[in-house]
Structures are given as structure tokens and as C-alpha cells.
Amino acid sequence: MKSIYKTGLTLAGLALLFLLIGWANGHLNEYYSRVLNTAAIYIVAAVSYNLINGVAGQFSLGPNGFMAIGAYVTTLLILPVSQKQAVWFLQPLVWPLRAYSLPLWLFPVALLAGGAAAALGAFLIGIPALRLRGDYLAIATFGFGEIIFVLANNIIPLTNGPLGIKGIPNLPYLLWVTWGCAVLTVLAVTSLVNSSFGRALKAIREDEVAAEAMGVALFRHKMLALVVSGFFGGIAGGLLAFLVSTISPSAFTFFMTFTLLIIIVLGGLGSTTGAVVTAVIYTVLQELLRVVESPLDLGPVHIPGISGMRMVVISALLIAVMLFYRRGLFGGREFSWDWLWQKWTKRKGTSWNQTAASRS
Amino acid sequence: MEPNGGQPLLSLRNVTMQFGGLTALDDFSLELAPGELLGLIGPNGAGKTTVFNVITGQFAPTRGRILFQGRDITGWRPDRVTAAGIARTFQNIRLFGGLSVLENVLVAYHVRLRSGVLGAIFRSRLYRREEEQMRREGMALLERVGLAEVAREEAHGLPYGQQRRLEIARALATHPRLLLLDEPAAGMNPEETRQLMGFIQHIRREFQLTILLIEHDMQLVMGICERIRVLDYGQSIAEGTPEQIQRNPRVIQAYLGQAEADEEGQGARHDVAG
Description:
The complex is a heterodimer of chains A (about 350) and B (about 270). Chain A is mainly α. Chain A contains 17 helices and two strands. Chain A has helices at about 5-25, 30-55, 65-80, 80-85, 95-100, 105-130, 135-155, 155-160, 175-195, 195-205, 210-215, 220-245, 255-265, 270-290, 310-325, 335-345, 350-360, and strands spanning about 295-300, 300-305. The termini of chain A are close together. Chain B folds into two domains: about 1-85 and about 175-275, Rossmann fold, CATH 3.40.50.300; about 95-175, no CATH class. In chain B, about 40% of the residues lie in helices and about 20% in strands. Chain B has helices spanning about 50-55, 80-85, 100-110, 115-120, 125-145, 160-175, 190-205, 220-225, 240-245, 250-255, 260-265; strands spanning about 10-20, 20-30, 35-40, 65-70, 70, 85-90, 180, 210-215, 225-230, 235-240.
């Protein structure tokens, strides 16, 4: 297929998505909007996490830390001064933040600052941690997430500790913001993965020794993946703060990383398509499965609601998927218009697929 | 870039490599003239692959210096050594299995990319031109080594002989002046080995390479090397033309006389990887 057609199809797909969001913005109630927003935020977080874990093959367990940094920095910049005085009633907030806040319409600046701070955090943890491989890297990045968690709990003049921060202003048109960020993240990460830098990252994943022998500077490229991943992780954290309007350290425990890990493994490590699709599926499942947590009357039998039952079902699904699709739903493959075109022409029984395959 | 007069392309000066108490390479010196094809042989564990690993920067030598084109490259990181013009293949094939044959080669061009990350993400004009250039060059290279028709296949699906060939092609893509081949004929049958010999001579001419070759297959070594160096227990024991080496009593003893050596009570032999 000619690349101009593919670009056209991509643009058409985006236009369709925007039409859907435009419609959803006016017609959906708060509950459904919230589900859609959550899905978009999971897309941002999972796609960026997949970059370091799936594409570059560096087993990081730190995305909860990046999201926490993004959420706190965004919140501290955007929370109105009056609200800051109300929240930090035991100890005052540190000086410049106490007196100044960005107006709400500058929320993109706050989000970008959150992303930049998370990227800086990624850079700092990367300096020691990226010298490690495999399990050791996992432990080091896990430690990073825990450090951020403990700091958020204890630096009360900055984070208000375990009480968290309340009253983050609502963003009008939040759906546009979250889905806009999701689209931009997917485009940026896909573009990176499909570039020469992406090939270098995949080469590192396939064989570090050979990649280095082919001239790939290991440390620099791993750092690139970690910092980009941290940046978008920070954006996801900031978006989450706007969505739930309250943040506290407990929102960014290791459970967040665990959720993202489930999403990218289910989707197929290394597959951006997989990360997007499973992020949406996971969010919707979380809602659909609320049924299993509510009390149930089956004639004479009464089953009381068991909270946490959803995770049991999701874990069972995880086991099932891993048994039947060992490499995840997409197994590292990506959606592409060529692939769709091939499927389509094959079904119509023509021999077009050969021409489709010979084009990149 | 051309080395002046009789300057060697590569020289190892009194290189010693110790791992803990184990001396894998002992006071090893070697000079390679531009355009030469030198064979490095020796029994298992003699330290041959260690020579490659210290040249390419996998290990920094305990003592001694390594000079390439007159520049001291001792202790450089592997990717910098590669960028300086030394490429290698591995004894156990190390391809990027999940990537396509073409992508395997393209990875090797990455080091010469001038665009930055942002240029690549936003597909700047420079980046698009470079990417296209890379793909053209990569396909041309695959054509020259006879892998063009499998360019889109995943590397781990290739038959063994083609995997070996791809590994060499990938090394060539880094534009080396010196190519290090680590047992390229391992696991090949005599017919494949004969083909490989032709292939090595072909690329040597066409890419104007200097080649350092580790090999166990004596047919191949004696067939294409002008000069052979023999290693045993990390030490050089002989050097000369194939005929001289075949007649050298120390070499024969190193390969065949281990039983006698053991009887003389030389003690346990430590095997060094490769």
C-alpha cells in the first residue's frame, strides 16, 4: 500500500476518534466519562511503560514512581493558592509554591512540568540502575518507586503526607485532554520505536553484547528509553490527578506498577498496539466485574459482596491468556494498515496480498 | 586515514588478561599489516576468543596496550571500538533473532546516524533522507552477500549457513577496516565450509578488509590464511606460514601431545572460555 494512503487512513482514524470524543463529551454521563478518561490515562501509562520494558527489554518496576512525581508536580503547580492554605493546615507548604500557582488555563504547562520532573527522576535513577541487568535492574527500580512513596508520605511541607491533597480543580473538556495525550503518546512512542533509535533499542533487547558490538552505545540508549518512558509516565500521573481531583501516596503504590505490568504483558511485551488494546480492555473489565463484588441472591443462597473479588477474576483471566497466548495477545506484533489490507484482500481471495507484502 | 608506510593496522603489545587467579592471555603481542589475513589457532581454552574480547573492548586487559591505526584503544567501550573500525562476529551466533534480516543490518548503521532523537521522532527531512539512505545501503549489502531475497524474514528463522552469513554481513555494515571472525565454520559441513572460504576471500577483496580469523577447521585455516599464529595456555607458541605451522613440533605437541604433557606432571589444566 502506498504510504500516502496509509497516512490518509491514519488521519481518518484520528478524525473518527475525535468525532467520537466530541460526541461523548456532550452525551455521556459522569460515570461513563470517567471510565473513558481512565482508559486514556492507562493508555498513556502502559504505552510509555512498554517502551522501557517491552521494546528495550529493560525490566523496570518504577512507573508508579514516575506517575507519582508527575501527579504531585502538576498538582502543586495548578492547585489554587486558597486551596493550598486549606490543605496544608498543620505545616505550611514551602515558600514559592505557597504563594504562587498557575491559572487553570495553563494546565498544559503544569502537565509538561510534571512530565519533565518525572523524566528528571528517571534520569537520576537511571545513572546507577541502568548499569544493572535483568532482575537486579528490576529490584533497583522497584526501590526507586518505594523511595518516592516514602518521600511522598513524609515530606509534609511539600506533599502533605498521607493525608494527600484535595480539591484539585476540574478541567473542563477533560476527555479531550486525556485522549489528546493518549494519541500524542502513541504517535510519539510509535514514531520513536519505528526509527533507527527504536531498532537500536530492540537490538539491545534481543542481544546486548551483539548490540554493543554493532556500535550501539548501551547506556545512552537505555537511558533514552527510560527518560522518554518516565516523561510520559509523569504526564499520566498529572492526568490522573486532574481526573480524581485528590491525590495521596496510596494512589501510587506498587499496585499501580503491577496493574501496568499486567496490561503490557497481556497485550504482548513490546507491542504498542497490545498496550493500547489491553489498557482499554482492562479498564472496562474493572467496571464490568463490579458485579462479582456486589452481594448476590440466588434463590435461597445469599452471597455477601466480597471486595477484591475482581482481582481474583482478572488474575484467573491472566493465567488463561498466558496459557493460550504465551507471548500476550499481540505477541510483539503491531497493528498496521498493511496488515489490515492483507487480511482484507486475503478474505476476498485475490492475490493482492503479494503486492501488499512487498511494500513496506 | 590511510596508515603511512609500514605502520601496522593493529598491534597488541604485551597484553595480559587475568580473571582472578587465572591467566587467560599471557604477555601476548601481535601485529597485523593492512590487508593481511591472519589465522589464530590453538586447542580449546587456549585464549583465542579472549584475544577478540580484549581487542573489541569486552574486557579491558590487565596489562599491555592495544593500538589501532596508531591510536591507543586500550579499554575503550565496545561500541567505540566498533565505530573506530573494528567489527566482529561471535563463536555462538548472536543475531537479533526477532528482527528482520534487513533490520539486523540496519542496526549496524545506527552509529553513523547524524539526526538526533527529536529529529527521528518528528521525521525531520535529514532523518528521512538518512533512513532512506540506510535502507538502500542495507539492501545493496544484502544483495552483495546473497541475502536479499530473505531481507524481510526474521533472523532466527534462517537456516544455519545463512545465519552465519548474516552475522558477517552485519559486521560489514559497520564499515570496518578490520574484521574479526570467531570460528565462522563451526558446525558447518565440508561443502558449506568450502563455500564460506570463497565468501571470506570474496569480501576481503571487495571490502578491502584486514581479517583476523579464529578457526578450528584446519582445511579452512590452511586454505586461506597466509600467516598463522598458534596459542596455547594463553601464550604464543608459534607463528608462520601454513606449511611451517604444520611441521612445527611445538604445535603438534600442543594439539596431540597432551597425554604426554600430563604424565610429566604439569598439573591440572584450566579451561578458559573459548
